[in-house]
Amino acid sequence: MNWKVYIQGFKSFLQLEKSLSKNSVEAYLHDVDLLMRFLELKKYSLTPKDLELNHLQDFLKWINEIGMSAHSQARIISGIKSFYKYLLLENVLNHNPTELIEAPKLGRKLPDTLSLDEINKIIDAIDLSTPEGQRNKAMLETLYSCGLRVSELVNLKISNLYFNDEFIKVVGKGDKERLVPIGSVAIKQINIYKNEIRSHISVKKEHEDVLFLNRRGAKLSRVMVFTIIKQLAFKIGLKKHISPHTFRHSFATHLIEGGADLRAVQEMLGHESITTTEIYTHLDRDYLRQAIIQFHPRS
User: Fold this and answer.
1) Residue among 81, 85, 169, 173 flagged as catalytic
2) What is the pTM of this model?
3) Is 37 a catalytic residue?
4) Is 149 a residue of the active site?
C-alpha cells in the first residue's frame, strides 16, 4: 500500500473518530504530505512501514534548513507523530520510528491582550452610518462578551440565541456544543443589527439561520472578520498585533483579573484541558505587582 492510501485512512480517522474540525484535519494532512514530498525529493522509495529514525532525522534537518520557524517545526513533528500513532492503532506497523524524535523547545508565548479602554476605542471607531458598521459593532461586542473563536462567531445561528436566559449556544472545535453567557450590551447590539439591518438583507439559501451576513446575504468569512479588526486597529493607531483571537484572550484575562474561577473560564472558552486555560493566569506585570502590594503581609 502506498502513502496516499494510508493518508486517506488517517483523514477518516481524524474526521470520524477524533471529530476534528476541517482546518485541523487539513493541518495534520499537510504535515504528512510535507514528509512524503521530502522523501520524493530525496528519491527515497519508502512506504510508511519502511521509514526509520535516520530518515526522520534527515527530514528534520531539511525543514530547519529551508527556514521553518521552531513553532512550525514543532507542529509538523506533532502531526507526523499523530500519523504514526494512527498506523500503530491500525496494526499497520509494530514499532514507531517517531518515538525518539523531539520537537524544538518552545518558550510559551503569552497572548496579546487589549485593555478595556483599547476595546472601547476600537468599537467606538466603527462607522455606524453604514449597515456594515452596525453589524461590525454587534460582532465585536459578541466576540468580547462571549470570548468566541472567529469560526464560532461566523457560524453563530439565530436559533442558538437564548436572550431571555442571557445565553447563546456555540458550536466549537470537534462540533462540541457549549452554552456561553452573553452580556446585555452584546444582546442590545445584536437585536439592533438583527431587527434594523439584517431584516432588510436578501438572504441566500442555506444561510437563513446564520446571524452575521455579508452584503450579499451569505455567511461572513473568517478572513473578513480579521480584515475588519485590522482596519479598526489601524484607524485608532493601535500598535499591537491583534486579531479576532485577541478579543478572546482579553475576555479570559479580564475575567481572571476580576477573580473568576479558572474552571468556569475553561467551560466558557470550551477548552478541553485546564492547562490551556492556565495561560491566562500569566497576567501583565502591573496587575501582579499591584496584587502583591495589596495582599502580601510584608509588602
Assistant:
1) 173
2) 0.62
3) no
4) yes
Which of the residues 11, 85, 222, 245 is marked catalytic?
245
Domains detected in the chain = 3-89 (1.10.150.130), 116-292 (1.10.443.10)
Catalytic residue check, 216: no
- Residue of 86, 144, 193, 280 marked catalytic: 280
- Which residues have C-beta within 8 Å of that of residue 82, sequence separation ≥ 6? 28
By the 10 Å C-beta count (0-12 exposed, 13-18 middle, 19+ buried), 240 is classed as exposed
The CA-CA-CA angle for residues 110, 284, 247, to 5°, reads 60
pLDDT-derived band at 229, boundaries 50, 70, 90: very high
Q: What is the pLDDT of residues 153-173, one digit of tens each?
A: 999 999 999 999 999 999 887
Active site residue 95: no
- Give the pLDDT confidence score for residue 192 in this predicted structure: 96
Q: Establish whether 173 is a catalytic residue.
A: yes
Mean pLDDT on 43-49: 84
Output the pLDDT for position 190. Answer: 96
Residue 162 falls in the annotated catalytic set: no
Question: What does the radius of gyration of the chain's CA atoms come to, in whole angstroms?
Answer: 23
Q: Spot the catalytic one: 149, 198, 249, 254.
A: 149
CA 105 to CA 2: how far, in whole Å?
33
CB 36 within 8 A of CB 3: yes
Note the pLDDT of residue 299: 44
Q: What is the pLDDT of residue 218?
A: 93
Say whether pLDDT at 88 is over 80: yes
Integer Cα distance of 279 and 156 in angstroms: 26
Q: Which of 14, 95, 6 is nearest to 47 (CA)?
A: 6
